[in-house]
């Protein structure tokens, strides 16, 4: 029986596989899936079993999840289709006889008003109704969501609509380590983990990114409607711009503020301070 990590060609899924290997998990027990499995050839060379899995192709999911004991369902990025895609993965896991499915969700997905969380909430409902034990990994924001934008920030500054709201940040690898801990550990079935690191305002974050990068990073705070217009002007499609601007509305209202204790429990340590996490992310 195997541990299956879906979406292993993506940033988070790949880091989960790396964390499993770092924990000493037998590579032959790990199945890493991707739409294009050839991009995982380096993992295959290290003994990880690589299989093709396309969330839109149920036959591929049945083959990919065959023999699965525990499954990490990494949420997809096809907004508007994710519930159907995730349902297909869950159904394939149940058909394979998996004992546990963990899902990467959003903070307080079942109660939050964030537009981004709607498909997460619907997926959680599907998983909770399925005939399999579940774990909900409700990840807050990644540090890299901001540090990856350094060239834009250096030119235009960090523009948001969060006011003095604080956002809980942790590195992708820390969320990946938490997921790996669930996949190899016991006592997690039925648990919901609200995962987040230390919290900062965007103004504080701009200063920390500037200090770590040696660049002057300004910060401009707009209202939500104005931020949506800025995003659309930068080429973000209207529906996506609405969702991303709404994230800042949620930050302003405390919807991405998460205590650190669940992430600390799974990591076995406190998550990195934001300044340290920013420096690590910028070095990557």
Can you offer a commentary on this structure?
- This protein is of the alpha/beta class and 284 residues long.
- It folds into two domains: 2-139, NAD(P)-binding Rossmann-like Domain (Rossmann fold); 140-170 and 196-257 and 270-284, UDP-galactose 4-epimerase, domain 1 (Alpha-Beta Complex), CATH 3.90.25.10.
- It is 45% helix and 18% strand.
- It has helices at 11-22, 41-45, 58-64, 82-96, 118-129, 144-147, 150-156, 172-184, 202-213, 224-233, 238-252, 261-267, 274-283; strands at 2-5, 30-34, 49-52, 68-73, 100-105, 133-139, 141-142, 158-160, 167-170, 192-195, 199-200, 219-221.
- Strands 3-2-1-4-5-6-10 form a seven-stranded parallel beta sheet, with helices on both faces. A three-stranded mixed beta sheet has the order 7-9-11. A two-stranded parallel sheet has the order 8-12.
- β5 (100-105), α5 and β6 (133-139) form a beta-alpha-beta unit.
- The protein is globular, with a radius of gyration of 19 Å.
- The protein starts with a strand and ends with a helix.
Number of helices: 13
Strand content: 15-25%
Gross morphology? globular
List SSEs in N-to-C order.
EHEHEHEHEHEEHHEEHEEHEHHHH
Pfam family, one: NAD_binding_10
Domain NAD(P)-binding: 7-150
Protein name: NAD(P)H dehydrogenase (Quinone)
Which SSEs are present, and which pair or pack?
Blueprint lengths: L1 E4 L5 H12 L7 E5 L6 H5 L3 E4 L5 H7 L3 E6 L8 H15 L3 E6 L12 H12 L3 E7 L1 E2 L1 H4 L2 H7 L1 E3 L6 E4 L1 H13 L7 E4 L3 E2 L1 H12 L5 E3 L2 H10 L4 H15 L8 H7 L6 H10 L1
Parallel strand pairs: 1-2, 1-4, 2-3, 4-5, 5-6, 6-10, 7-9, 8-12
Antiparallel strand pairs: 9-11
């Amino acid at each position: 029986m195997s541990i299956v990590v879906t979406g292993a060609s993506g940033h988070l899924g790949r880091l989960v596989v790396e964390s499993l290997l770092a924990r000493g998990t037998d590579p032959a027990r790990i199945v890493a899936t991707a739409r294009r499995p050839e991009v995982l050839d380096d993992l295959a060379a290290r003994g990880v079993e690589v299989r093709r899995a396309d969330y839109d192709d149920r036959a591929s999911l049945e083959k990919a999840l065959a023999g699965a004991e525990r499954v990490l369902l990494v949420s997809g990025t096809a907004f508007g289709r994710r519930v159907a895609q995730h349902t297909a993965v869950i159904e394939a896991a149940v058909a394979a006889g998996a004992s546990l499915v963990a899902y990467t969700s959003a903070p307080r997905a079942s109660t939050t008003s964030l537009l981004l969380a709607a498909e997460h909430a619907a997926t959680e409902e599907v998983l909770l109704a399925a005939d399999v034990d579940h774990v909900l990994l409700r990840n807050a924001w990644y540090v890299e969501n901001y540090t990856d934008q350094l060239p834009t920030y250096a030119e235009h500054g960090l523009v948001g609509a969060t006011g003095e709201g604080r956002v809980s940040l942790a590195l992708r690898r820390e969320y990946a380590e938490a997921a790996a801990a669930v996949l190899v550990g016991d006592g997690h079935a039925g648990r919901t983990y609200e995962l987040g690191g230390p919290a900062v305002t965007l103004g504080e974050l701009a200063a920390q990114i500037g200090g770590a990068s040696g660049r002057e990073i300004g910060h401009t705070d707009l209202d939500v409607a104005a931020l949506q217009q800025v995003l659309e002007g930068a080429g973000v499609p209207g529906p996506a711009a609405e969702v991303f601007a709404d994230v800042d509305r949620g930050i302003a209202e405390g919807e991405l503020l998460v205590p650190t204790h669940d992430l600390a429990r799974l990591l076995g340590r406190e998550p990195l301070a934001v300044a340290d996490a920013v420096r690590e992310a910028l070095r990557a």
